[in-house]
Structures are given as structure tokens and as C-alpha cells.
Amino acid sequence: MEIRFLVINGSERSNGNTEMAIDIAKSILNEISGDNKVIFDVISLKDLMIKSCNDCHEVENCNYRKEPCQQNDDIKIVLKKMKEADCLIYATPVHGFGMPSLMQLFIDRVGVGYLRFERPLSNKIGGIIAVGRRYAHASVFSQLIQNFLLNRMIVVGSGFPVYLNGGKKGEIKTDKEGIDSLYRMVIRMFNFALFIKLNNGNAYELNDLLNNNEREYIYSLNN
Hints:
Largest sheet: 6 strands, parallel
Shape: globular
Low-confidence stretches: 217-221
Distance between the termini: 43 Å
Number of strands: 6
Radius of gyration: 18 Å
């Protein structure tokens, strides 16, 4: 069975703690995948060209437009990968008691510009890695969880959230509880993705089934 993981790295630094956390997640999957094939892709937002919403002449009416964003940048590349994935992880540092501007820009552009039209991430499995010294992990986690729920994604409970404490490079490796939470989250995501594929063919078939049931229920309320 093939399971596709995509990690969106929101850090502006190379080889920092966020990247280390992603490497650990990959090693966990290599350990547990068994005979299954895991495709593990990482997209670092710092390597992409992502334009601000303010570059668009329709920015004032963006929430009311009926077609996807027409700006020419790298968001479409990321979106294609997101649609192909079974599991999506947002990995981000904590900057100034919140997400770094790069991650926030990505969330704004991909959400308002594309995801809100057809909700293509419905029933994909989401996970969050928040990396920082010791402050505001929960604020970042809360915002991204709400973003997952907005996009009709599945968040699998795995115990404590993945809050990795570390300021200096490499310090997250000493956060035993945080690393344990990372292990639990990745394993749960993998197992649940496997469960969906084994029981429902693939997430797209499940998506169609659930969306149809949802539509029938909504329509029944209107009749």
C-alpha cells in the first residue's frame, strides 16, 4: 500500500530545529512502514515565490470571487502536491507569539485563493509540528487546527500536541516528551491513512461518499 505524506515547512531558516523535526518524522515513517511504500515530500516555503494578496487588483473583493486566484506564483505547485497527499503536516516555528510571516502568507493565499472553492483537502489527515522556545506553541497549534477543520480535514488524536521546545539549534532533540508526541502523531497518521485505504479504496472515494451524505442531509433540512 502506498501512503503519501507532504510536509509544509514554514521556517525561514535552513537546517534549523523545524527541519530537524521533519527529519525525525521521516525516520519514524521509515521505521514503521513495513512492506508499505511511504512517499515523503517536503516543501520549504522559503524556497518558493509566494506573492502577497495585496499584489492582486481584486484584493478588496477576494472573499466574494467565484474563481480561484489568478496570480502567477508558486502556490499552484504546492496546491497540486497537497491534493495528491494522503497526509499533510504543517511544520512551523513560533515567531513573536505566532506563526512566521511566511507561513501566514501561505495560509492566506492557499486558503482564500484556492481551497475555499471545492475544499480539495476534505478527509485528508492533518498533523501539526510547532517548534519554539517555550512560548505560544498553543496559539500556533490552535490556528492551524482550525484551518484543518475549515478545510474538512481529519485530525487524529494522538495524545499531547507536538510542541517541540528548543531555542538553539539542536535543542529539540533533548525534549523527550515533545519527540514522543511527534512519534505518536506520525504513527497515528500513518495507521489511519492505511485504515482508510484498506477499508474504503482511497480517500477520494471516502470523500465522495461523505460529501454526498452531507449534501443529502443539508438538502433534507431545506425541504
